Amino acid sequence: MKKGRLFILALLLSSTTLYAGGIKNAFAALNIYDYFKARSLFIKSMKHDSVSSCYGLSIILSRNDNHFYNIDTAYFYILKSKKLYTAASLKQKLKWKDLGVDSGKILHLKDTIELRAFKVALGTNTIDGYNHFIQVYATAWQIQSAVDLRDVIAFTKAEKENTYQAYKSFMETYINSTEYADAKKRYEISLFKTLTADHSINSFMNFIKHYPESPYIGAAEDSVYSVATPHHIVNEYYSFIKGYPTNRNVTKAWHKLYSLYTMDGKPETYAQFHIQFRDYPYTQHADTDLILAQTRFYPVRQNNLWGYIDSTGKVRIPFKYEWADSNFFDGLAAVAMNDKIGFINKRGELAIPCIYDEADHFRKTISVVKKGNAYGIISTLGQTMVPFEYQEITNFSEGMAVIEKNNKYGYISLLGEEVVPSQYQDAGDFSEGLAYVQNTNGKYGYIDVSGVVVIPCRYDWVSKFKNGLAKIKSNSKFGLINIKGDTILNCEYDNIGDFTDTIAMVAQNNKVGYIGSHGEIIIPLKYEYAPDLLTGGMFRKGLAKVQLHKKRGFINTEGKVIIHLDYDDVLPFNEGLAPALSEKKWGYINKKGTLLIHHKYDFVGNFCDSLARVSLKGQYGFIDMDGKAIIALQYDAATDFKNGLSQVTQAKHSCLIDKTGNAIIPCQLNNTQLFGNILQVEMNGKMAMFNLSTKAYVWQDQGFGK
Known about the structure:
Layout: H1 2-31, H2 35-44, H3 50-62, H4 71-87, H5 90-98, H6 103-124, H7 127-136, H8 143-161, H9 164-173, H10 180-195, H11 201-210, H12 217-228, H13 234-243, H14 250-261, H15 267-276, H16 283-293, E1 298-302, E2 305-309, E3 315-321, E4 323-324, E5 333-337, E6 340-344, E7 350-356, E8 358-359, E9 366-371, E10 374-379, E11 384-390, E12 392-393, E13 400-405, E14 408-413, E15 420-424, E16 426-427, E17 435-438, E18 444-447, E19 453-459, E20 461-462, E21 469-474, E22 477-482, E23 487-493, E24 495-496, E25 503-508, E26 511-516, E27 521-528, H17 533-536, E28 543-548, E29 551-556, E30 561-567, E31 569-570, E32 578-582, E33 585-589, E34 595-601, E35 603-608, E36 611-616, E37 619-623, E38 629-635, E39 637-638, E40 646-650, E41 653-657, E42 671-675, E43 678-683, E44 686-691, E45 696-700
Antiparallel strand pairs: 1-2, 2-3, 4-5, 5-6, 6-7, 8-9, 9-10, 10-11, 12-13, 13-14, 14-15, 16-17, 17-18, 18-19, 20-21, 21-22, 22-23, 24-25, 25-26, 26-27, 28-29, 29-30, 31-32, 32-33, 33-34, 35-36, 36-37, 37-38, 39-40, 40-41, 42-43, 43-44, 44-45
Helix pairs in contact: 1-2, 1-3, 2-3, 3-4, 3-6, 4-6, 6-7, 7-8, 8-9, 9-10, 11-12, 13-14
C-alpha cells in the first residue's frame, strides 16, 4: 500500500513539473514570436493553468502579425483569464506572478484589446460594426462612444430618407439616443406633411383621428378650418361649427361669423342675429357689443393729452394719453404713455400695458409689436404668441407672416410656429397659396405654406400671384407663369403691366400691345411706349389709353380706336367725361370723342359728385359737367368732392366747403380730419370736433378759437 501511494505521489509531482515547464516554455516561445509552438503549449496547459493559458492565447490572438489573429477570440480569452484570476487564491496568484501574469497585465491587455477592437469599429464606421463592438465588448470604456457614433449614423440615414417611417424606425430602435428628440420632431412633421399632402379635409380629419397625441393636431385643425372656410362667408363658418364641433377653431369661427354678420353695426342686425343663431354661446358678449356698437368713439386732444368722446361730445375715456389711435380694432385701440404703446378697450380699461415701442392695430385678434430692437406678436389678451426674437414681422397673409432673423427671412404661422426657418435672402407675402423667396444665389422661386419649394428658384425677379398669374424676369426680360410654374409668356418683353379686365399691356422695343390671361396677343404691339403708360395705359371700364406719334386717345378691348389719338394726354373717364390735354391746356371729352369743355386749364381732375377740380395759374376751383364755374378759382389747394364736401386751403388755412362753395367752417384751420359726419379740426394748436349734420361743435379744447 505504501508503495502504491508513493507511486501516485510521484506521478502527480511529475505531472505538475511537466505542466509548469509547459507554461514556461509557452511563454518562452511567445517571447521569440514562435506563435505555433506557444499556441500549442498554451492549449495543452489549459486544463492545469487556465489563467496563464488564456492570457497567453489572448496575446497571440490580439497580435496581427500571425495568422491566428482574431481580436474577438482574444477578448474572450482575456475575459476568461480575468474572471479566473479574480476567483483564485493568493497562493495561485503568487505562482502566476512568477510566470509574469498578474492582474495589472491582464487588465492592460484587456484595455489594449478593447482599444484595438474599437479602432476596428471606427474603421468600418457602420451600424453593424458598432453594434458588434457594443455586443462583444460590453464592459469596454468606449461603449458609450460606440453607441453615440452608431446612433449618429442611424439618424443620418433616417435624415437622408426623410420619411416618417424612417424616423419611427429610428426611434423604436434607438430609444435612448441623444438624437431621439430631434427624430421625434422630424417624425411628427414628416408624418403630418405626408398624410395631409393633398390638403383635403378628409386627410386632415383622418390625421386628427389616428394621431390624437401629435403636436400638429392644432395645425391639422387649423387646416380643416381654413379649407372649410375658403371664402370667409357666414354660411361657411356656420357649416364648419356644426360639422366640426370639437375643432379648436369653433370659438374663432363663431366670432368670425358674428363679426361678419354684424359688421354694419346696426341694432336691427344684432336683433336678427339673435333670431337666426339662437345657439350662439356668447349672448352676453353680443348684448354688450350691441350697446358699444351704437356708440362711436372719437379721439380728441385736450391740453396735449388724448382721450375719446362720443358723437354728443361726452367724454368716454379721460384725457391721459400721449397719443391715441383713430379707431378701435377687435375692440381695442392703441394708446401711448411714457413713450410706450399699449391698448385700451371701450370701457377705458388698459387691456394691454403700455410697454411696447411700436405696435400695429389688431387684426384677427393678434398684433405685431416691437419691444426694444425685436418684434413679436401678442393676442388681444396680451399673451405673447410669438417671442420677441425677430428683426421684422410682417402682417399675416393667408395665415403666414414673413419673419426676419439674422438678416435672413422665413415664415411663421398664426400659431406662432416657425414653419419656414429664416434662410432666404428675400421673401414675400403669401398670395393664392404661394409666396416668392430668394435663395442665396440671388434667384427667385415660390414656396407653399408648408415651406416646400414648388417653383424652383431660377428667376431674377418675380411678383406675387394674382388671378393665377405672376410676372417673372430673366436676363432683363419679363414673362408670365401660372401657379403650377408653367410658362405662359416667355421672358422676351421689356415690361408687362398689371391685368385689368383680363388684359395686360406688354412692351417690347418701345412698342406696346395687349395680351390676354393665357398669354395670347389680342392687340398687336403697334403703339408707342412711354413709362407712364405702364399704369396709365391699363384698361379701365373697357377702355385703355394708347399713344402713336406722341398723340394719345382710347381703344377698346378689341383694339378698336374709340377716341382718336389727337391729344397730348388723356385721363380715364369718370362720370362719362375724361380730361384731355392739347397744347398744354386741359379740357374734357365724352365717350364719342366730342370736346365738351374747351382746353383752357393748367390742371384738371376727374369728375366726382358731378363736379371737377380745375386750376389756372395755381388757383383751384370747381366746374360742373357743362364747364360752368360753380366755385370760383380762388384756393391754393383743394381735394375732389366726396360726400358733398371738399377740403380747400387758402392763405395756409384749411376748411371744408360744400358743393355751393359755402364754407362749413371758416378758413382759419390748420388741419382737418373727417370721421363720418364728425370733423376733427385744429386751430393754433387747439382741437375741436364739429358735427357736419348739425353744423355745430360737439366738443372743443379749452381755448379753441382764441
